[in-house]
Design brief:
Elements lengths: L3 E3 L2 H18 L5 E6 L2 H14 L5 E11 L6 E6 L2 H6 L5 E9 L3 H10 L5 E9 L12 E5 L3 E3 L9 H7 L1 H6 L20
Parallel strand pairs: 1-8, 2-3, 2-5, 5-6, 6-7
Antiparallel strand pairs: 3-4
Helix pairs in contact: 1-2
Length: 196
């Protein structure tokens, strides 16, 4: 069984702001923030808030991309959803910061960089967690807060956790997930809502 590290919401938020501080202190100020959906979205919001607080006004966008392994093949593929308008809207020469929660194999980062290359933009990568031992590319994030080899479980994550792990992670969330409060356990209404 894989050892899992449960990151608290406060620690994750603070590390996101630490990442923002690194970027501001570097002097390289982005014109655009592209947060990779899903994991990069909360980090992207924190970075945007931090930079906005310091008088900077980068555009903040979300890019939905997903990785999967094809059936009976080890080829790593990344697909993008509704991405063309985002890529076409970037101004040549602008500075683009790509944000994610974890940089592990590097496959997603490589695919995003390949899509950004024809845009003529200057790109840097930022992540909270970097896993260099599983990186399968020549890439390295320009900014990262923590280097780790551990399996990170983020505050919002439930998928892949056993009920016991959810309870260990947060007993309150575990209680909220119980069948007595689950929408799936409630009978469906038939017909329009009663407006009387």
């Amino acid at each position: 069984m894989i050892d899992k590290v449960y990151v608290s919401a406060n620690d994750y938020l603070r590390d996101s702001f630490r990442l923002a501080r690194m970027i501001l202190d570097s002097g390289w100020l982005p014109d655009d923030l592209i947060a990779l959906w899903r994991g990069g979205a909360p980090v992207g919001v924190s970075l945007h808030e931090f930079l906005y607080y310091h008088g900077l006004r980068p555009r903040h966008r979300v890019l939905k991309c997903q990785s999967y392994t094809g059936i009976q093949t080890r080829e790593h593929t990344v697909s993008f959803e509704d991405a063309d308008s985002l890529f076409h809207s970037l101004a040549a020469g602008s500075r683009v910061l790509v944000i994610d929660d974890v940089f592990d194999t590097g496959g997603t980062a490589r695919a995003v960089l390949e899509r950004l290359r024809p845009c003529g933009v200057e790109v840097r990568l930022a992540t909270v967690y970097w896993k260099p031992n599983v990186n399968q590319t020549e890439l390295k994030p320009d900014y990262y807060v923590r280097e780790t080899d551990q399996w990170i479980v983020f505050p919002h994550e439930l998928d892949g956790l056993t009920p016991e792990e959810v309870k260990q992670k947060d007993p309150v969330i575990f209680g909220l997930l119980s069948p007595r409060t689950s929408a799936a356990a409630r009978p469906a209404r038939s017909g329009p809502p009663d407006r009387s």
